[in-house]
Design goal:
Elements: H1 2-12, H2 18-27, H3 35-42, H4 47-57, H5 64-70, H6 76-85, H7 92-99, H8 105-118, H9 127-138, H10 146-163, E1 168-174, E2 177-191, E3 195-201, H11 203-214, H12 223-248, E4 252-254, E5 258-267, E6 272-278, E7 281-289
Antiparallel strand pairs: 1-6, 2-3, 2-4, 2-5, 3-7, 6-7
Length: 290
């Protein structure tokens, strides 16, 4: 969730614009965070020290870690730690923004530190910290049925990252309106509690969901594409039902999924529709507790 939280912060503060963020998100799948950005995030090095090592690499055929150790900026143990952290996708967004020239290492350091100071994500970042921040950004912590929406939306975000990837940014949150989706799949949750859930988006967004979930190259909104999106929704709701049974002793059932074009969904004040922008297109999740 770090990518979405930090990206949301950068966008809201005007540090990057929507096009720059989208370009970075698109490139995330092929960019690996470099040790300099990882070292800044870990608090092991300053931006000035990272730039000094980069300058030294222009004059010597040596690795970043080797030079940093020789200059006393890092220990051997810290280099090992950074190499392990480098595999984490959390810092890929920052690296992409740096590689594109949208931010310098100094701006990255300043923005990251300011973000951590101003949010619950500070010090050692935990999953709980990030989930709390996500709920705050989405306004779920103030909703009437916040327990339900917290459980559902956090699971949904985790499943997006798990099955589709984390190259998306958070968009507008809508309540008290009627929203439309060009292509969508709907399912009802029934039993000890009831809710309507819809996932969909633009044509490119809808196809992108199906392609990522199926792991195939899809390019049209045919029956197979619709079935893939509906299966993702069914998986999400099935996991939610299992969690509610295990954690809250609630027994839930699911109706068959229904795929529609030009779907209109009424979102009451105590419902939520969240817009998300993936590198492949825009999608939307609408959840209304009945």
């Amino acid at each position: 969730m770090y990518t979405q939280l930090f990206g949301h912060y950068l966008l809201n503060k005007g540090i990057v614009d929507a096009d720059e963020l989208h370009a970075a998100l698109t490139a995330m799948t092929r960019i690996k965070a470099k040790l300099g950005a990882v070292a800044i995030d870990a608090g092991y090095m300053t931006a000035a020290q990272v730039e000094e090592v980069h300058e030294a690499q222009h004059a010597a055929d040596k690795r970043f870690g080797e030079i940093a150790v020789s200059k006393g900026f890092l220990t051997e143990e810290q280099v090992v730690d950074l190499l392990a952290r480098q595999k984490d996708s959390n810092l890929v967004l920052g690296q992409a923004l740096i590689d594109f020239g949208f931010m310098t290492h100094g701006q990255f350091e300043e923005a990251l530190n300011a973000y951590k100071r101003g949010s619950s994500v500070s010090g050692t970042v935990t999953d709980t910290d990030m989930e709390k921040e996500m709920l705050y950004i989405l306004g779920i912590d103030k909703m009437k049925d916040k327990e339900f929406y917290s459980d559902y939306i956090l699971l949904f975000i985790r499943n997006l990252i798990r099955f589709l990837g984390d190259d998306f940014s958070l968009g507008e949150v809508q309540r008290g309106v009627t929203v439309s989706m060009n292509y969508a799949c709907r399912q009802e949750i029934t039993g000890d509690m009831s809710a309507t859930v819809v996932i969909g988006g633009t044509e490119s967004g809808f196809i992108g969901i199906a392609a990522r979930y199926a792991g195939e190259d899809l390019n049209e909104t045919d029956g197979y594409t619709k079935a893939c999106v509906c299966e993702l929704l069914n998986l999400q709701n099935g996991l939610f039902a299992v969690n509610m049974s295990n954690e809250r002793s609630l027994e839930l059932d699911l109706t068959p999924q229904v795929s529609e074009e030009k779907m209109m969904i009424n979102i009451p004040d105590n419902g939520i529709a969240i817009n998300l922008s993936f590198s492949f297109g825009d999608i939307k999740i609408a959840v209304v507790k009945n």
